[in-house]
Amino acid sequence: MDSLLRRDGWSMWKSQLKGWRVRPNTGSLPKDIAYILFIVFMQTTVLPTLLGSAGVFDFITPWIVVSAVRQRPLQATVLAMITAFTLETKLAVPAGIYLCSYWILINIFFQIRPALSWRYRTPWLASYALASFWIMLF
User: Fold this and answer.
1) How far apart are CA 93 and CA 120, in angstroms?
2) pTM
3) Rounded to whole angstroms, what are the CA distances from 137 to 11, 26, 56, 115, 132?
């Protein structure tokens, strides 16, 4: 059986990277924190430089929404608060604005989590739209 396994560098590298696929709810809080910090960095630093005034894209809010639906409440709250603290230190906003908005958003999604289904797209579209609308209004 050992002779059938490939032992070159590419297959070993590929097997190591399988655990580091970028997705919400990896099952490991340190990985989730690393991913959200990477997304915050991309959204606040790289994308404005590349796109200029062409548009602003929000990748953080859908990530927080999926995390709130799929993770346990403590892990999702920790992830949302780390995101809020990172955004507040990076952007020039009044103190606590992201903390309050993400705290409310997380708690709302904990309450409506049983109503969301992976089968239908409409609740997810409405959830993303309302979450983005909430963050823009707040």
Assistant:
1) 36
2) 0.71
3) 48, 30, 15, 24, 9
Torsion of CA 118, 122, 127, 129, to 10 degrees: 140
Query: 124: which residues sit within 8 A by CB, 6+ positions away?
Result: 116
Q: What is the Cβ-side half-sphere exposure of residue 5, based on CA atoms within 13 angstroms?
A: 6
Sequence-separated (6 or more) residues with CB below 8 Å from residue 126: none
In 3-state terms, what secondary structure has residue 118?
coil
Each residue's pLDDT tens digit, 6-33: 566 666 666 666 666 666 777 788 888 9
Cα–Cα distance for residue pair 25/132, rounded to 1 Å:
20
Q: What is the dihedral of CA 115, 66, 24, 107, to 10 degrees?
A: -90
Instruction: Give the DSSP letter of residue 91.
Output: S
Tokens of 24: 């919400």
